């Protein structure tokens, strides 16, 4: 008998994205779980049209929100998606094939991810699909999200690898990207200080420069055209911003 699949999605004001996401999974999901943290737009209304089970939970952090969604799932397997992601028909077929194989030794599968930023698929600049490969499909009782920032699914067992990538429709504008930088640098700085990390001037100046060189040259960002340069530069700013926030938190400024 084929195992069933629950797709979990956490949302906040995702009406422009969620239809695309739900369309891509409607043929393979036996159950759709949406955990919303207070959308003011039509996100919840759209989700219910796809017969998703919608729950409200105040946002704590990404890991706790996603673990809450996973606990609500009733199927043997869980596929976690963000509302701005979709899966291709090829990936959908591959997922169904793998979870139907009851002889497989794997309790989870990693999936590569294609990132669409500023309107185009970013092939390099450290956004290569294989460099953004993570566990997003796992047996419910074998995995759990961990990490306040850049959360990951940690599983107890063997992890297989899927061939086809899911597609992440990320930032359409520089303003959206910079909003992300501000949110994540705040969380990164807080986590860094909590773990005992310390501010230093060498890190403040050298880490941003190193990040640019890695992304633009070593990871071939120049092959992504102007987007590769802008993304490399913005991530340089991100790391500078991160260490300034660490300095502020150490001194109790924020």
CATH architecture of the largest domain: Alpha-Beta Complex
N-to-C span: 55 Å
Taking all Cα atoms into account, the compactness measure Rg is: 19 Å
Q: Element order, helices and strands?
A: EHEHEHEEHEEEEEEEEHHH
Contiguous runs where pLDDT drops below 50 for at least 5 residues: none
How many strands, what sense, and barrel or not for the largest sheet?
7 strands, mixed
Q: Determine the CATH topology of the largest domain.
A: Spore Coat Polysaccharide Biosynthesis Protein SpsA, Chain A
How helix-rich are the residues, as a percent range?
40-55%
Instruction: Please give the number of β-strands.
Output: 13
Strand order of the largest sheet: 3-2-1-4-9-6-12
CATH class group of the largest domain? Alpha Beta
The helix count comes to 7
SS-based structural class?
A: alpha/beta
In round numbers, the mean pLDDT is: 95
- Count the domains: 2
Strand content: 15-25%
Approximate shape? globular
**Fourth CATH level, the homologous superfamily of the largest domain:** Spore Coat Polysaccharide Biosynthesis Protein SpsA, Chain A
Domain Glycosyltransferase 2-like: 6-133
Organism: Candidatus Woesebacteria bacterium GW2011_GWA1_39_21b
GO molecular function: transferase activity
Keywords: Transferase
């Amino acid at each position: 008998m084929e195992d069933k699949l629950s797709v979990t999605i956490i949302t906040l004001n995702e009406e422009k994205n969620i239809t695309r996401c739900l369309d891509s999974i409607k043929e393979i999901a036996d159950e759709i779980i949406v955990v919303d943290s207070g959308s003011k737009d039509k996100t919840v209304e759209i989700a219910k049209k796809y017969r998703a089970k919608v729950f409200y939970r105040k946002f704590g952090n990404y890991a706790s929100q996603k673990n809450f969604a996973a606990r609500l799932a009733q199927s043997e397997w869980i596929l976690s998606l963000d509302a701005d992601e979709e899966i291709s028909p090829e990936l959908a077929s591959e997922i169904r094939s793998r979870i139907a194989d009851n002889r497989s030794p794997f309790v989870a599968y990693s999936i590569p991810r294609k990132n669409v930023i500023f309107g185009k698929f970013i092939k390099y600049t450290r956004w290569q699909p294989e460099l953004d490969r993570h566990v997003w499909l796992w047996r419910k009782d074998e995995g759990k999200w961990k990490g306040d920032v850049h959360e990951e699914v940690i599983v107890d067992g063997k992890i297989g690898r899927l061939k086809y990538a899911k597609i992440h429709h990320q930032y359409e504008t520089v303003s959206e990207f910079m909003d992300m930088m501000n949110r994540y640098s705040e969380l990164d700085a807080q986590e860094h200080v909590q773990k005992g990390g310390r501010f230093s001037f060498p890190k403040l100046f050298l880490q941003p420069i190193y990040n640019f060189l890695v992304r633009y040259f070593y990871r071939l960002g120049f092959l992504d055209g102007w987007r590769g340069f802008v993304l490399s530069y913005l991530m340089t700013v991100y790391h500078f911003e991160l260490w300034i926030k660490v300095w502020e938190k150490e001194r109790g400024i924020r």
